[in-house]
């Protein structure tokens, strides 16, 4: 089985995400000016006597784009959703696919519908039946018109269990029709100033500007933003990219229009966004425009977007030693810093940016500009087929129209890109119509129902091919003709063995396959390859492991060992991969090798290392003794048979480490004694997993200040011996100020049931004294 690795997407590149932004994308409850409105809404929704609570209720948050309706709804959702049996958060958008939306709501409520034949009416009935006797809570975000609301409301039954519905909308008529209208208020001047100062100067700064020279112009800019958070953040992000100079700031102030102070309407908001857009360099504007290929409210995977940029030719090699992907990541980070895109963090730790979103007002601007420049043509119904005659890039979204009514017999040699989404499966054109295509992205479209890939091999100019999650079980042999291909993504399919001669893909940068897919023919010839997750290593490939050393451009490598063989040349081979940033070696079944990687020395820019599932290190490697050598290492998953307390201190000095998953073999080696993590160690660690220590590790005050999740095991009899007279156990958990969740595995080791319960009680007592009301799970 493949290991779960929480892959960070940031690299040490020219532009990194501005740390002052982190505070803007915390949980909604922590954002500026939200708490008062949140508490007011919660009081409306759930305060009252027993009879009131059992009644159903709808609240409609209404206000124009950028006021923070979604943020407020999400803050309420985070605060009270746990009180309900079923809960869901659904984004509707301007042109919703109702079948997809209803299925999404069902899935969020906990009912998975795999039947693709159910129509809209049947899905409504499924929802009504499922929720009939349940106390449910749902946020229905961004409703544009009354008919859509009526359909959704029909699916949400009225009952006497105390359901709650929050709707958000720009449309006053929708809010009045839904009922319970709550008018969204702008931020006060006080909160507006705090929001601007935090973005420009950092989270430590509140209302007072630290730069007195800029105080006057700051106040004038804040007035123009009229308390609208999106306007404030957008302008503040622009100011943060400029010198702290009064003349530069007044230039911004004078350029964003007049007459905004009393009311910042949609037109004036567009002026602010347009000014920020045109203030960017041309390459960033081009990359932002490309996001118009994605539907509204879509979470856009960062890596996918960057690969698309590369295939379109938007990224040029600007810096020697940097790959196109790293430069593309720099562009992505700059767009975040400008607040033109919103980062989406990983669900697990909320520390790594995996995706992005566009605020709908930014998307409106981008789509308008893209249409004016004939940059992207979005096809969502048959009404816009006239635009196809000049289309260069096609985005196929959300249509019930069939293939014939859209395309007829037209050939479209001018089209360079086709990106299709699952709801537009009927729109996908015949491949022979596009002779000069560079990008074909059919991710998530079910191609198993008869769509032919027969002519795929005739797309000689293709740079990017994404067929992930399309239901295919093989690629046609003609794909070998695609000699300019740079990205091939066939993940989440049923391909057990890729039967192509991959040696034909001389320019391939990224080969994305599933961990069980065998790719053997020609794999060692891919000299340009930078990303290879996964490489299925069987006996034959392991016998030729030294050829892996020919792939010297690799940045990302995941090896899955489907063999009990261990080739001693693996260390020498890995030493040749000097550009590697992510290295994962996992074992599919079988035993861990012991000592096979002891002599391995990692390159200095390694970011993720996973060897825990495949190999025991005898001791902590000497190359880890130098923290400056591993300045970028942020995730470490290793198994070390014998670890000393000094070794733990060495790991604690790694400057960028956010995740540590450490397994030791101390029980079988007879190593006892308590390890202590001292003050100042593991300053960035967010998740820590320590398994195999005979006695639990102890934390001193000042250790692991950012740790949010701790996972460890303990031996019952050892804990009984070190427990205090009051039955408590001093683990030092109270010294970890950010701790939220603790997972504990209890090893009985022949102890009686009573002894096990005593030990568990001691751990509970240790957790209870923590001020954060820890979530504790003992297994």
Q: What's the short version?
A:
The protein is an alpha/beta fold and 779 residues long. Keywords: Plant defense, Repeat.
Key structural traits:
779 residues, alpha/beta, Rossmann fold, Arc Repressor Mutant, subunit A, 5 domains, twelve-stranded parallel β-sheet, seven-stranded parallel β-sheet, 23 helices, 29 strands, globular, P-loop_NTPase, WH-like_DNA-bd_sf, plant defense, repeat, Disease_R_plants
Question: Can you describe what's shown?
Answer:
The protein has 779 residues and is α/β, with parallel strands linked by helices. The chain has 5 domains: 34-183, Rossmann fold (3-Layer(aba) Sandwich), CATH 3.40.50; 187-278, no CATH class; 282-371, Arc Repressor Mutant, subunit A; 376-495; 665-779. The chain is 29% helix and 17% strand. Strands 16, 17, 18, 19, 20, 21, 22, 23, 25, 27, 28 and 29 form a 12-stranded parallel β-sheet that branches. Helix 1 packs across helix 3 (69-80), helix 5 packs across helix 6 and helix 22 crosses helix 23 (753-768). GO terms for molecular function: ADP binding. Residues 414-773 form the Disease resistance R13L4/SHOC-2-like LRR domain. Residues 293-366 form the Disease resistance protein winged helix domain. Residues 39-197 form the NB-ARC domain. Keywords: Plant defense, Repeat.
Layout of helices and strands:
Layout: H1 34-46, H2 50-54, E1 57-62, H3 69-80, E2 86-91, H4 98-109, H5 120-131, E3 136-143, H6 146-155, E4 164-169, H7 172-178, E5 181-183, H8 189-201, H9 215-225, H10 229-240, H11 246-255, H12 266-278, H13 282-289, E6 300-301, H14 302-312, H15 324-337, E7 342-345, E8 353-357, H16 360-372, E9 377-379, E10 393-396, H17 403-407, E11 417-420, E12 439-441, E13 464-466, E14 487-489, E15 510-512, E16 531-537, H18 539-543, E17 556-561, H19 570-574, E18 582-587, E19 593-594, E20 608-610, E21 615-617, E22 635-640, H20 645-652, E23 659-664, H21 666-669, E24 676-677, E25 687-691, E26 698-699, E27 709-715, H22 716-722, E28 741-747, H23 753-768, E29 775-778
Parallel strand pairs: 1-4, 1-5, 2-3, 3-4, 9-10, 10-11, 11-12, 12-13, 13-14, 14-15, 16-17, 17-18, 18-20, 19-21, 20-22, 21-22, 22-23, 23-25, 24-26, 25-27, 27-28, 28-29
Antiparallel strand pairs: 6-8, 7-8
């Amino acid at each position: 089985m493949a290991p779960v690795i929480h892959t960070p997407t940031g690299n040490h590149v020219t532009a990194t995400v501005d740390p002052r932004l982190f505070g803007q994308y915390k949980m909604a409850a922590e954002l500026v000016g939200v708490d008062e409105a949140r508490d007011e809404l919660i009081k409306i929704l759930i305060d009252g006597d027993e009879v009131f609570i059992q009644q159903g209720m709808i609240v409609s948050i209404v206000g124009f784009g950028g006021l923070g309706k979604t943020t407020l709804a999400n803050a309420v959702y985070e605060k009270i959703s746990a009180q309900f049996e079923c809960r869901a958060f659904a984004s509707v958008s301007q042109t919703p696919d109702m079948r997809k939306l209803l299925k999404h709501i069902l899935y969020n409520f906990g009912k998975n519908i795999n039947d693709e034949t159910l129509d809209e009416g049947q899905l409504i009935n499924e929802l009504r039946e499922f929720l009939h006797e349940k106390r449910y809570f749902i946020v229905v975000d961004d409703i544009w018109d009354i008919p859509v609301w009526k359909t959704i409301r029909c699916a949400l039954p009225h009952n006497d269990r105390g359901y709650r519905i929050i709707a958000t909308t720009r449309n006053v008529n929708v809010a009045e029709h839904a009922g319970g209208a709550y008018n969204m208020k702008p931020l006060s001047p006080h909160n507006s100033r705090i929001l601007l100062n935090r973005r420009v100067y950092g989270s430590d700064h509140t209302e007072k500007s630290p730069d007195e020279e800029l105080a006057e112009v700051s106040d004038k800019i804040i007035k123009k933003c009229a308390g609208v958070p999106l306007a404030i953040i957008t302008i503040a992000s622009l100011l943060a990219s400029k010198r702290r100079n009064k003349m530069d700031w007044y230039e911004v102030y004078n350029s964003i229009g007049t007459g905004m102070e009393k009311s910042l309407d949609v037109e004036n908001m567009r002026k602010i966004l347009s000014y920020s857009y045109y203030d960017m360099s041309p390459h960033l504007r081009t990359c932002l425009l490309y996001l118009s290929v994605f539907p509204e409210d879509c979470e856009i995977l960062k890596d996918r977007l960057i690969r698309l940029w590369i295939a379109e030719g938007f990224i040029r090699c600007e810096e020697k030693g940097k790959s196109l992907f790293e430069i593309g990541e720099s562009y992505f980070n700059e767009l975040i810093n400008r607040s033109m895109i919103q980062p989406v963090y990983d669900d697990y730790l909320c520390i790594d940016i995996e995706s992005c979103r566009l605020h709908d007002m930014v998307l409106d601007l981008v789509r308008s500009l893209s249409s004016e420049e004939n940059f992207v043509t979005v096809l969502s119904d048959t009404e816009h087929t006239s635009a196809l005659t000049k289309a260069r890039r096609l985005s196929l979204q959300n249509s019930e129209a069939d293939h014939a009514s859209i395309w007829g017999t037209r050939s479209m040699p001018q089209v360079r890109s086709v990106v299709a989404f699952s709801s537009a499966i009927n729109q996908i054109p015949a491949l022979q119509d596009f002779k000069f295509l560079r990008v074909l992205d059919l991710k998530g479209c079910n191609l198993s129902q008869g769509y032919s890939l027969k002519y795929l091999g005739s797309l000689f100019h293709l740079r990017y091919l994404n067929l992930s999650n399309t239901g295919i079980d093989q690629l046609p042999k003609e794909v070998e003709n695609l000699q300019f291909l740079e990205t091939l993504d066939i993940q989440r399919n049923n391909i057990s063995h890729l039967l192509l001669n991959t040696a034909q893909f001389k320019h391939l940068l990224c080969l994305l396959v599933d961990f069980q897919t065998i790719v053997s023919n020609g794999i060692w010839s891919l000299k340009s390859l930078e990303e290879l997750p996964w490489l299925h290593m069987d006996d034959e490939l392991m016998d030729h492991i030294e050829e892996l050393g020919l792939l010297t451009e690799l940045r990302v490598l995941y090896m899955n060992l489907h063999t009990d063989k261990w080739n001693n040349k693996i260390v020498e081979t890995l030493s040749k991969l000097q550009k590697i940033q992510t290295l994962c070696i996992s074992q599919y079944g079988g035993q861990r090798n012991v000592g096979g990687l002891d002599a391995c020395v990692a390159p200095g820019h390694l970011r993720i290392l996973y060897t825990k599932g495949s190999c025991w290190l005898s001791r902590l490697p000497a190359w880890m003794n130098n923290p400056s050598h591993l300045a970028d290492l942020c995730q470490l998953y290793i198994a070390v048979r014998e670890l000393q307390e000094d070794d733990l201190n060495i790991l604690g000095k790694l400057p960028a480490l956010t995740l540590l998953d450490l397994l030791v073999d101390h029980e079988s080696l007879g190593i006892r004694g308590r390890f202590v993590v001292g003050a100042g160690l593991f300053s960035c660690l967010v998740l820590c997993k320590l398994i195999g220590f005979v006695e639990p590790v102890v934390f001193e005050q000042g250790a692991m200040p950012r740790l949010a999740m701790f996972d460890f095991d303990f031996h019952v009899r050892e804990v009984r011996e070190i427990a205090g007279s009051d039955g408590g156990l001093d683990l030092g958990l109270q010294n970890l100020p950010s701790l939220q969740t603790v997972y504990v595995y209890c090893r009985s080791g022949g102890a009686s049931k009573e002894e096990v319960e005593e030990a568990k009680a001691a751990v509970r007592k240790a957790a209870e004294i923590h001020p954060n009301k820890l979530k504790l799970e003992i297994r």
